[in-house]
Amino acid sequence: MRIGLLTDGGYPYATGESRLWCDRLVRGLAQHEFDLFALSRSAEQEAQGWVRLPSQVVGVRTAPLWTADEETLGLHTPRGPLARLLTGGGARTYARRERRLFATHFADLAAAVCGAAGGERGETADAGTGARTEGAASRLADERFTRGLYGLAELAFEHGGLPAALRSETAVRILEAACRAPGTGRTVQTASVADLLAFTAELDRALRPLSLDWYDEDGLGAVDLCHATAGGVAALPGLLAKRFFGVPLLVTEHAVRVRAHYLASGGAPAGAPVRALLAQFHGLLATEVYRQAALVTPGNTHARRWQERCGADPAKVRTVYPGMESARFAALGEREDDGGPDTLVWVGRIEPAKDLITLLHAFAEVRLAEPDARLRIIGAPAQGPAGAAYLERCRTLAAQLFPADQAAGDSGGTEGDSDRTGSDSDQSAGSGEAPVTFEEIGGPEVPDLAQAYGAGGVVVLSSVVEGFPISLVEAMFCGRATVSTDVGAVVEVIGGTGLVVPPRNARALADACVALLRDPERRARLGAAARARALELFTVEQNLAAFRGIYLDLIARAPVRERPLPAGDDTPRPFATPPEVHVRDHWPVPAGGERADRTPSWAGAGGSDA
Fold first, then answer.
1. Distance CA 191, CA 272 (A)
2. Phi and psi dihedrals of 230, rounded to 5?
3. Nearest Cα to Cα of residue 460 among 482, 479, 440
């Protein structure tokens, strides 16, 4: 079958989220053809190029979300009469009818996003108070949002010009009226003109997929199934493919986009009204994506809970753990030694969400109980000045807590695993005898990722925010006992094969580490159980087997769509004909009607209804 793979800021680009998972999926399901429809997130990402694509990728279409220049967006040619209204500068202008349609559709979307109350047909009220019920208000917002979203999509498909219209004065005035309408929240009502302009700019970027040239019989109209590898904006093309062509939509989320947006917006420089509007928009979009998807496959139960809270039907949700390569850790996982029996190891990307500050305070208590204990922090800071600043803060705290020979314990390294390294540091090689060391993968002490996990007897995860904990699964493949904080999908991944403590609790983290450092038999027992669990649930093989079955199941339940074949192409298409035409039997007589002759043409003229 032919799969339309929808990505956002990842595959086929060399950097970005889920690129490794997508590449494994495409290469592992070589019996299918894949068309890639990729959204890019930055000019830097595009400049770094694509990964090497396998032969089963038959087409690639890309579009940027980071620019507002219509000339570089690859927007489709308008299909309606507005094509003749293009101005000399290339910008599209709307005639009166199209302006009226835009105002209607955008007013619906803005009213839903702003949560405005109004005399909408079909709304219900409480008999005693006359107030609309919360459920009715939610349904009304969903209806207006979908009406506005698909109305804007059809306008863009027929006439183009949507990016300019979304940034127009008309759009700002409509949005302002929606914000000031009765029933909106106090935060939204205080939105300034600057806030409205900032939101319409973000909305233009989020709705950019509505204007792309992907919706034709050679694009998304030619695929058997759309597979969105993320929710939100990445799934928008899948929504339109279903609406325009009836293509079933599969949505896979390893990290729920709505949750990620909420976490990111907390520290965003935008004002409170802009953050509130964006949160409402992404929430409504997520609800529509989950409603229209034939199946939603979260990467863990933690993500599933978020999806169901955002409106996903539990009957259409199936947890499929992301597959990871276990072979690179096989040699270490089969060894019986436990690395450094007195050493704790932390592996990952150094950033505030990993809460190394609490880990360092906890290790100070570990040293009081076990004076010979060591802590090796292996990784590199997150990209940008914030990551470097956090690393420096951790170094300073370590020097204060463990002043003796701390500087000699830092060992540098070259760039290794792209998810854990990627910035050079001024670390100096030392003896490694200091109680706390900061190291990078690729140096002489830690040449590869497996050696990082093998550097100690206990692997620690101290995060305060976590989705699917990849480093924890890698430690399990290595047969290591683990101590983790109870965040994200940690408890689900561990499943009783490691110790779990509350986040930001240095005392609990220290006590758990000391318990394992003092009990080598328990460490070995937990490590073996962790490895067995990881090999059962989290390998690439189990992930590919799951999606192989999901693809076939969704296609089997999808209605057959007629597609004209290119001239002279008589290649058999396995899903071009419904299976029932091959059944040598007769169809039941409809109630109240005569039985039609449904004998297949290949059965010959001798076929009879008798």
1. 8
2. -160, 160
3. 482
What six digits make up the tokens of 526? 């937990």
DSSP calls for 363-376: HHHHHHH-TT-EEE
Alpha-carbon distance values, 541 to 24, 213, 232, 317, 474 (Å): 10, 35, 28, 21, 16
Q: Which two structure tokens, joined as six digits, stand for 364?
A: 């100070």
Token representation of residue 263? 């976490």
- Please give the sequence-ordered ranges of beta strands (E in DSSP) within 92-133, or none if there are none: none
- Count CB-CB contacts under 10 A for residue 55: 8
Tokens of 202: 């973000």
Q: Distance between CA atoms of 346 and 354, rounded to whole angstroms?
A: 10
CB 322 within 8 Å of CB 307:
no
Separation of alpha carbons 372 and 539, rounded Å: 36
- Rounded to whole angstroms, how far apart are CA atoms 333 and 476? 8
Nearest to 517 by CA among 591, 559, 596, 460: 460
The pTM for the full model equals 0.79
Query: Amino acid identity of 382?
Result: A
Q: What is the pLDDT of residues 29-51, one digit of tens each?
A: 999 999 999 999 888 889 889 99
Q: Please give the single-letter amino acid code of residue 156.
A: A
356 burial level (CB within 10 Å; 0-12, 13-18, 19+): buried
Other C-beta atoms lying within 10 Å of the C-beta of residue 385: 8
Candidates 457, 584, 573, 591; CA nearest to 525 is 457
Q: How would you label 290-329 residue by residue, b for 16+ Cβ within 10 Å and e otherwise?
A: bebbbbbbbbbebbbbbbeebbbeeeebebbbbbbebeeb
Residue 357's identity, in one-letter code, is I
End-to-end CA, the chain: 38
Peptide bond into 12 cis (omega under 30): yes
List pLDDT tens digits, range 351-407: 999 999 999 999 999 999 999 999 999 999 988 899 999 999 999 999 999 986 555
